[in-house]
Amino acid sequence: MRLKVAAILIFLVMGLALLYSCSVPETETVDDFLSGYWVYPMQPQGTPPENYTHLEASLAPDSCAQCHTEQHKQWRESLHSHTMGPGIRWQLQLMKPEPSRACLKCHAPLTEQFALLAQEQGWTQARAAPPDYLPGDLHRKGLACAACHVRQHQRFGPSAGPNALEGTAHGGFVAHEAFSDSRFCANCHQFAEDGPRLNDKLREDTYNQWQQSRYAAEGKGCQSCHMPDRRHEWKGIHDPAMTRSAFTVTLSRSTADDGRLLASAEVANSGAGHHLPTYMVPELLLRLEHVAPSGRVSELARHILAWRPNLALTEERFDQRLPAGESVHLTGELEASSEPDGSLRLRVSVAPKYQYLVTFVDYLERNRHRLEPKTLGLLELAIQEARSAEYEFIAAEEMLETIAN
Question: What is the CATH number of the domain that holds 395?
């Protein structure tokens, strides 16, 4: 009875979804497969097959971990497992069902996740306990394993890899080349042409940026960089090593016609298959510095890589993102006494959640006295997380005496 009540609840909350067949014809194209796979709202998983064990029926990531240990460990440490963190949860406290549904399309796309959130938020009066296969906290697990790999309890994925598990657990799985195609990722990392824009630019446009880069022409898709060897890590702007790999820096010095000593840095986006940064949230500050033998650091030039909107997201202040394959130059004047002593370096300071941080702080300052304790706590935690995500690194450093004019 509990299973039937919960199933009815899910349909009432989300509405009747389009049916999707688990059978995948061999001739089905990637576009055809994805058009049926990413359908919103998703069809509820429904009652598990009778021959499924409790683990097989479960949609909990921890259940998947019992067999897919490494994939779960990688996912747990990735941003995909944190897409329902305090940064979105405090906002959901203030939102109604329909705008929340739009957010959860990527942050927690399973129909069951929305149903659980609806219960938690009081959007529905039903209080039926979820079925055994549906953990009560699934809506807080973010982009869970099942969101990408399970439809009507049937498992889907890429062709079996060299370390594939043997056996026929949960009836095996349906393999499709779409899981190795950038179009799979575009479901969330590319807005439709009629999606939200700023200064007539799509706010999320990563797939289009990739298509315009050399990586697309070379057949190097999203998974090549963000899921190497099928690792479920999806490293990006939050990872210092990943960000560092996107840059090629060339340092130089020269003498101007009037005798001034100049230092320059050419910074190329040579390692990312999209803009740096790809959308409006992160900010990267480039600083060309001279380090004297005494250790004194002088800033010679700076440049911001960012797409900066106003807080209301209605106006573009500037767009200084660095497209794939393009370069930016920083030039500053050296003190005459500094040649050939010391070194030149390029320092990169990264704020992965810059726009979130300034927006959240502004909202807190204006509304602290009106927020419920739960919302206030989540907002303060979101601000703390945004600040703690910041880091910096030295992208290049060379002694002045070794740098050619």
Answer: 2.60.40
Q: What CA–CA distance (Å, rounded) separates 56 from 29?
A: 29
**Tens-level pLDDT at each residue, the chain (405 residues):** 333 333 333 333 333 232 333 445 556 899 999 999 999 999 999 999 999 999 899 999 999 999 999 999 999 999 999 999 999 999 999 999 999 999 999 999 999 999 999 999 988 765 667 888 889 999 999 999 999 999 999 999 998 776 666 666 778 889 999 999 999 999 999 999 999 999 999 999 999 999 999 999 999 999 999 999 999 999 999 999 999 999 999 999 998 888 888 999 999 999 999 999 999 999 999 999 999 998 999 999 999 999 999 999 999 999 999 999 999 999 999 887 655 589 999 999 999 999 999 999 999 999 999 999 999 999 999 999 999 999 999 999 999 888 866
Q: d(Cα 281, Cα 277) in Å, to the nearest integer?
A: 8
The one-character DSSP state at 307 is E
Does the CA dihedral 13-382-276-279 come out positive or negative? positive
Compute the chain's Rg from CA coordinates: 25
Q: How many domains does the chain have?
A: 2
Tokens of 248: 């090629």
Distance CA 110, CA 298 (A): 52
Determine the Cα–Cα distance for residues 121 and 127; give it in Å rounded to an integer. 12
Classify the phi-psi angles of 52: left when phi > 0, otherwise alpha if psi is within -120 to 50, otherwise beta. Answer: beta
Does the pTM surpass 0.85? The reply is yes
Side-chain half-sphere CA neighbours of 384 within 13 A = 8
The SS3 assignment for 22 reads coil
Length of the chain: 405
**Is 206 within the bounds of a domain?**
no
The secondary structure of 245-269 as a DSSP string is TTEEEEEEEEE-TTS-EEEEEEEEE
Residue 14 in any domain: the answer is yes
- Is residue 140 domain-shared with residue 264, that is, in the same domain? no
Q: What is the span of the domain harbouring residue 134? A: 2-163+171-180
Looking at the structure, tell me whether residues 246 and 147 fall in a common domain. Answer: no
Tokens of 41: 């709202």
| Distance, CA of 271 to CA of 86 (rounded, Å) | 31
